[in-house]
Amino acid sequence: MLFPTREPRLPTPEEALKGRPEPEFPLQERHTVLGTPLGGPYPAGLEVADFALGCFWGAERKFWQTEGVWTTLVGYQGGHTPHPAYEEVCSGLTGHTEVVRVVFDPAVVPYAALLKLFWESHNPTQGFRQGNDRGTQYRSAIHTHSPAQQTAAEASRESYQQVLHASGYGPITTEILPAGPFWYAEAYHQQYLDKNPAGYCGIGGTGVSCPTGITPGGS
């Protein structure tokens, strides 16, 4: 633990691990369920969305099971350390959160539908925790890839906050910010629950439905 006697907190750039200029491991070539390449460039017409909603093992499965999603992969985002390893992220010394990258066809599944799945698949009011998983790497976040995604994500947060409040939940703590560097995770994390069907899945929502038609635009 980074701060064992305190609540978890994000490290400053000066406190963060320095990382490395190149990854220590290659990206797995293809999705074990969908059969599509994990790395870009992706086919024309597809879009990219990045979501953090707790342990990325169960979170990734939520998205690869969605019609219109072309591929998914997991990695680390939102911190300071380039090319981090899983153990480094879990130490709290990189500042990253566990992220699912979703490559999707907006003609089949609009970004608004992915936002709805995101909100309903976890509890976005818990800060540096998701269920029994505690640490800064489990915080809720949306990393956007366009002004339209940013606007849609912010509008969806406002709408979902209203229904969560009516159900007795506190403020949403989800970060919404433009996407920075995405560092892919080790091969054994990619499609983990396909490789390990009985593996751990910490994903669980609040049971509160997210309103439909929650975005004023975007794909």
Characterization of this structure:
The structure is a single chain. Residues 1-5 and 214-219 have low confidence and may be disordered. The radius of gyration is 17 Å and the shape is globular. It contains 5 helices and 8 strands, in the order E-H-E-H-E-H-E-E-E-H-E-E-H. The strands form 2 sheets. It has a 6-stranded mixed beta sheet with strand order 7-6-1-3-2-8, covered by helices on one side. Strands 4-5 form a two-stranded antiparallel sheet. With 219 residues, the chain is of the alpha+beta class.
Q: How much strand?
A: 15-25%
Summarize the amount of helix as a percent range: 10-25%
What structural class do you assign from the helix and strand content?
alpha+beta
Question: What is the subunit organization of this protein?
Answer: single chain
The main sheet orders its strands as 7-6-1-3-2-8
Give the terminus-to-terminus CA distance.
40 Å
Largest sheet, in brief, is: 6 strands, mixed
Uncertain spans, ≥5 residues at pLDDT below 50? 1-5, 214-219
Globular, elongated, flat, extended or rod-shaped: what is the shape?
A: globular
H/I helix tally = 5
User: How many extended strands?
Assistant: 8
Quote the average pLDDT.
Answer: 93
SSE succession: EHEHEHEEEHEEH
Rg of Cα set: 17 Å
